[in-house]
Amino acid sequence: MQKNDMAVIEITDIGVGGEGIGKIDGYTLFVKDAVIGDRAEVKVIKAKKNYGYARLMRVLEPSPYRVEPRCRFARQCGGCQLQEMSYGRQLAFKEQKVRNSLERIGGFSPELLDRITEPAVGMEEPFGYRNKAQFPFGTDKEGHPVTGFYAGRTHDIIANTDCALGVPVNHEILESILEFMEKHHIASYDERTGTGLIRHVLIRYGFATGEIMVCFVINGTSIPNAGDLIKSLTAVPGMTAITVSVNTRRTNVIMGESFEVLWGQGYITDYIGKIRYQISPLSFYQVNPVQTEKLYSLALEYADLKGGETVWDLYCGIGTISLFLAQKAGQVYGVEIVPQAIEDARRNARLNGIENAEFFVGKAEEVLPAYYERYEKEHGGEQARADVIVVDPPRKGCDEALLDTIVKMQPEKVVYVSCDCATLARDLKILCGNGYTLKRVRPVDQFPMTVHVETVALLTRDVV
Ligand code: SAH
Residue 419 catalytic? Predict the structure, then answer.
């Protein structure tokens, strides 16, 4: 195959980025926007020795899994990769992705995985699920301010105030901001020249409370005619917090280091299950609250707490899982590297009257081993124990020093919440080589229409 060759191809597989994969005489082609089961005409855009990339030119016979995308920018936009695939097939793809990693990287047998893998937890309505969106602002060819999303792998803005993954109210808010900017000749930031005022707008929506926060990220010290802006935004039902964060640095980091309240208060309130959270523009908070509640409930179910247990929640963020577990445990310890997140965790514990959760700032792979050693010294050689250890690490997974200490502390159960099934498989293999058995695995779809997949796994300690 060579560049610009045309070919007709059956799409027989799905790549890690959601693209379709097909073979022509043993030569593999990756085709963006093609759906598994499609027969399609494609044009080669890049040809390597054994594989190449092709553009979807025409679907000749659509796959039974092909659906009409909800959003007309589904192909250009960098946000969604699977919008043209039926939701049921997306879930099957995610289950397969997790299984493949556990087999190939973790070395778990297909028979075991058949027995213990549970079907992915999907959404009833897999659109409009995001409670947070950050919209970049730019200027179109005619000089008008626009906002929307970056096209895949670029910083070109696709003007779209109606993203299908966000809440409908985003549209009304963004349109009134654009109108305000037109009226007062306020320019969007231009990252090439470093000029212009409005860089990004962050919108957060409390699904349980209906409270809305808007945060303007600006390249300057204030927004002129802000009174007018406040007037139109406060007409939106639910508006609770209008804030400004100054960011004058030439950087890709969106938010500034702090924020000020322009109107209302500096935070919104939301609930996951019965736990109440205060969320500021700078706080980390799970973006899909509906699925997060299912995710944490599953972690809680796997932990199977009876009431007196000592539980560690490592990589605890703002303490979301910790507070969930504290409702059923004796004592919970949370560990997180970001100090502000721990401040939020402590405040959220107080806000909910939870007294059996304690939080530590630091690296999980340093805090837990240090605790273990200190305990041994202070207790005349007796070893620190835990009943359940929950980990929810970032994509790179757990550090080996942490896994070592977990093994030493011999918890009955380890509940592993993962956003990257490759590092999950790697870490489970280590734990299963050191006295643990994999008992249950279940993907949870936190991000429908995208290729991301979250997984919860349960390990129990072998009886010796
Ligand atoms: N469990 C939380 C957050 C999980 S995201 C929730 O469900 O909301 C992973 C978290 O790990 C992030 O908050 C990140 O700041 C933190 N983190 C990253 N590296 C870490 C490390 N080495 N030790 C402790 N926390 C870390």
Answer: yes
What are the two backbone dihedrals, phi and then psi, of residue 430, each rounded to the nearest 5 degrees? -65, -45
Taking Cα atoms as reference points, which of 415, 315, 417 lies closest to residue 98? 417
Q: Kindly give the distance from the C-alpha atom of residue 443 to the centroid of ligand 1, in angstroms, as a whole number.
A: 19
| DSSP element (H, E) containing 182 | helix 169-183
Which residues fall within 8 angstroms of residue 317, CB to CB, at 6 or more apart? 284, 336, 338, 341, 345, 392
Q: Is 33 in the pocket of ligand 1 (CB under 6 A)?
A: no
Question: Within 13 Å, how many C-alpha atoms sit on residue 366's CB side?
Answer: 6
Query: Ligand 1 centroid vs 336 CA: distance in angstroms?
Result: 6
- Quickly tell me which residue has 């109440």 as its tokens: 276
| Digit-coded pLDDT (tens) for 209-264 | 999 999 999 999 999 999 999 999 999 999 999 999 999 999 889 999 999 999 99
Cα dist. 387→2, 4, 137, 305 in Å? 59, 60, 49, 9
Residue 341 beta carbon below 6 angstroms from any ligand 1 atom:
yes
Question: DSSP secondary structure string, 398-438?
Answer: --HHHHHHHHHH--SEEEEEES-HHHHHHHHHHHHTTTEEE
Task: Compute the distance between CA of residue 233 and CA of residue 393 in angstroms, rounded to an integer.
Answer: 37
The residue written with tokens 């792979």 in the block is: 365
pTM (2 d.p.) = 0.93
The helix (H) or strand (E) run that includes residue 370 is helix 364-378
Q: Which of 78, 86, 80, 98 is nearest to 36 (CA)?
A: 86
Q: Quick one: three-class SS letters along 25-38?
A: CCEEEEEECCCCCC
Question: 461: burial class by Cβ within 10 Å (0-12, 13-18, 19+)?
Answer: middle
pLDDT digits (tens, 9 = 90+) for 168-211: 999 999 999 999 999 999 999 999 999 999 999 999 999 999 99
Nearest-CA neighbor of 246 among 227, 236, 260? 260
3-class secondary-structure state, position 142: coil
> Which one of 300, 336, 403 would you pick to mutate in the ligand 1 pocket, going by the greatest count of ligand atoms within 8 A of its CB?
336
Residue 338 token pair: 């970001």
Report d(CA 171, CA 173) in Å as an integer. 5
Smallest CA-to-CA distance from 283 within 364, 355, 345, 335 is with 345
Annotated active-site residue in 71, 215, 398, 419:
419
